[in-house]
Structures are given as structure tokens and as C-alpha cells.
């Protein structure tokens, strides 16, 4: 694991944006498959990439994207659906073709089959070239909660109480947070060719320490990234504060 500690959350976002810019530029017209996370961690990175698109001509015209996860049961147009979140926060503001920004179908009548279909679609597209990740305060990546199989594929998961409470800040009340999600599995995420995880703030410090310095264990799902050959973890000083 490459660990990069930035002075501020803004510096961390710029560093992650640099990785995206390098990869997108190097791929050129051959195109690149991006793996996109939602939640608050990547938002500053997305803002910086939008700025570079508008002011510096960074183009995503040859990129396509797969989201990590989606709530089960939220309509796509709900402002907290990840389908909508990624468009509002990122992809509607760059020149990526919207039809190539794919996410699990949280409204499918058969969510289990939809999850398997999504896993297949990622494979058939040739896999993810560059995946951005956040980390949950309990060490989840995607929505692979503690005790998830380290080899898991895209499937339906039930969120822990802690994750529901963490995510309640995006909803009017905690009771509105869906408890079921479709998430790429840890095995699926691990097939991405390059991974950049961004974590900022004291609230992530414990999970970051477990991910980087703890044993590889399903109790900290992000620790599986220790097994991946090309992972960069970008932290601000607060998120790095519990590293030895
Ligand atoms: C989001 C996702 C989650 C978040 C994690 C951190 O697509 O898969 O793993 O990255 O819950 O969320 P924030 O960034 O809101 O603290």
C-alpha cells in the first residue's frame, strides 16, 4: 500500500484528482473505465475534476464508469439514490456520456439477480481501470460491512446500525435510510487494476489504522486492500492520526 498524507482535506482531494487526471489522459482515445464511489469522501475530488474539466479542458469523453453500490428500494430520481448523487455531484458536470455511467439497479424486482447481472457487466466491460473508494467508520468499503467474505461478489447486503446512523445525515430522519443495498463485493472491487482510497477527518482514523496496520480480516473489510498490488491511500492528517 502506498500511503500519502496530505496537510489538508483539500490537498488530499487534489492528489486524488491528479491520479485521475493522469490515468484519463494516459488512456486517451482508448478510453478508461472508472469506478466511482458516492458518499462525502470523494466529493471534493469530483469538484476539483469538474474544475479541471471546465478550466483546463480535462476530458472524460472516452471514459465510462461503474458505481460501487446503490440503495435497494430508492427511486433513481430520489436525491439520495446513488444513481442521482453521482450525476448531481460529478458526471452531469463533465463530458462523460451519461449512458455509460452505470449503477446497480436498486429498484429491480429481483435485486439478487440484478446484483449478479451488474457483476457480469463489469467483467464484460473488461473490468475497472481506476477505482476511487471511501471507507466507512467501521472499515467497510462499498457496502461490504464487517464479516463480509473477502472474496465476495456483487450482492445484496444489510447495512449495520452504525452505517445507517452514519448515513442518516443525508436523510431527514434515520428511519428513512434504506437498510438494504446492492454492493460490489470485496472480490469484485479487488479486481480493479488500480485503487485510490481517500479518507479525511478524525472520524476515519480508527478505521484507517485497522485497514493499514491491522491484520487482514473480514472484521475490517478494507484490510483486504493490503493484498492488492496497486493501492494508494490518500489521507489528511486527522485521518492519519492513529497510524503508528
Ligand atoms: C459509497 C460507499 C461507501 C462510502 C463510505 C464512506 O459509494 O461505497 O463505502 O465510501 O460509507 O462514506 P463517506 O464518504 O460519506 O464518509
UniProtKB/TrEMBL annotation:
SUPFAM superfamilies, per database record: NagB/RpiA/CoA transferase-like
What is stated about the way this protein's activity is regulated? Allosterically activated by N-acetylglucosamine 6-phosphate (GlcNAc6P).
Which species expresses this protein natively? Brachybacterium phenoliresistens
- Record has Acetylation as a keyword: no
Keywords per UniProt: Allosteric enzyme, Carbohydrate metabolism, Hydrolase
Q: Tell me the domain of life.
A: Bacteria
Q: What is this protein called?
A: Glucosamine-6-phosphate deaminase
Which PROSITE patterns does the UniProt entry name for this protein?
A: GLC_GALNAC_ISOMERASE
GO MF terms listed in the record are: glucosamine-6-phosphate deaminase activity; identical protein binding
Question: What residues make up the catalytic site?
Answer: 69, 138, 140, 145
User: InterPro entries from the entry?
Assistant: Glc/Gal-6P_isomerase, Glucosamine6P_isomerase, Glucosamine6P_isomerase_CS, NagB/RpiA_transferase-like
Q: Does the keyword Hydrolase apply?
A: yes
- Give a single Pfam family match: Glucosamine_iso
Q: Which residues carry the site feature described as Part of the allosteric site?
A: 148, 155, 157-158
- Which gene carries the instructions for this protein? nagB
Annotated EC: 3.5.99.6
What's one GO-annotated cellular component?
cytoplasm
The residue ranges of the Glucosamine/galactosamine-6-phosphate isomerase domain are 9-227
Reaction catalysed by this enzyme: alpha-D-glucosamine 6-phosphate + H2O = beta-D-fructose 6-phosphate + NH4(+)
What is the documented function of this protein? Catalyzes the reversible isomerization-deamination of glucosamine 6-phosphate (GlcN6P) to form fructose 6-phosphate (Fru6P) and ammonium ion.
Amino acid at each position: 500500500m502506498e500511503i500519502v498524507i496530505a496537510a489538508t482535506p483539500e490537498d488530499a482531494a487534489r492528489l486524488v484528482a491528479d491520479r485521475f487526471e493522469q490515468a484519463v489522459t494516459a488512456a486517451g482515445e482508448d478510453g478508461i473505465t472508472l469506478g466511482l464511489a458516492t458518499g462525502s469522501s470523494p466529493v471534493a475530488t469530483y469538484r476539483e475534476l469538474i474544475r479541471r474539466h471546465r478550466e483546463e479542458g480535462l476530458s472524460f469523453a472516452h471514459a465510462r464508469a461503474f458505481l460501487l453500490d446503490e440503495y435497494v428500494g430508492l427511486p433513481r430520481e430520489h436525491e439520495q439514490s446513488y444513481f442521482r448523487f453521482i450525476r448531481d455531484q460529478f458526471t452531469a458536470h463533465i463530458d462523460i456520456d451519461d449512458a455509460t455511467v452505470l449503477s446497480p439497479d436498486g429498484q429491480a424486482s429481483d435485486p439478487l439477480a440484478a446484483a449478479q447481472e451488474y457483476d457480469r457487466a463489469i467483467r464484460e466491460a473488461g473490468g475497472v481501470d481506476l477505482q476511487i473508494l471511501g471507507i466507512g467508520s467501521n472499515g467497510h468499503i462499498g457496502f461490504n460491512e464487517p464479516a463480509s467474505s473477502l472474496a465476495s461478489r456483487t450482492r445484496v447486503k444489510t447495512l449495520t446500525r452504525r452505517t445507517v446512523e452514519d448515513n442518516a445525515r443525508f436523510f431527514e430522519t434515520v428511519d428513512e435510510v434504506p437498510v438494504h443495498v446492492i454492493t460490489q463485493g470485496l472480490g469484485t472491487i479487488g479486481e480493479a487494476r488500480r485503487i485510490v482510497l481517500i479518507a479525511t477527518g478524525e472520524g476515519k482514523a480508527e478505521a484507517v489504522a485497522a485497514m493499514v496496520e491491522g491484520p487482514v480480516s473480514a472484521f475490517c473489510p478494507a484490510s483486504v486492500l493490503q493484498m492488492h498490488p496497486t493501492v494508494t491511500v490518500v489521507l489528511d492528517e486527522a485521518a492519519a492520526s492513529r497510524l503508528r
